[in-house]
# Entry
Amino acid sequence: MRRFSVNGRMVLVAVLALSLLGNALAIGAGLRLLRLRADLLGDQAYAGLQEPEVRRALNAALVAHRDTIAPALRAVLRARMAAMETGSAEPFDRQATLDRMAETRLAIDQLLDAVQIALLDGLETHAGVRPEAAGNGGSTERP
# Structure
């Protein structure tokens, strides 16, 4: 009888499957938010849209910061999955679930910080200001 052994191909397939699952979760959440946007905000749903030049600057900044945003997004997905696993475990442990939810909020806050820094850099670039020369050095903290 041959024993089950893990080889490189199986690990690669597992990693790719997890990656696809993470992407599907992120895309699904984004699509759900777009569908709910008009329902939640009514006539104000698209009031915050920027001019095309500003949107291009913001998109470019998000792409430029993908090395910090992507890991933060993956951390949010991992934290969310951990919270769901803990919350659905038998027997239910309320405190452990609360702790995992707190970790998820922390990961979301860190993602928000990374995105806001990128957006600030994009707005500064659009305004013709070098991001390093502006205000408080790329921090989202108030002076």
In short: The radius of gyration is 20 Å. The chain is about 70% helix and 0% strand. The chain has a mean pLDDT of 83.
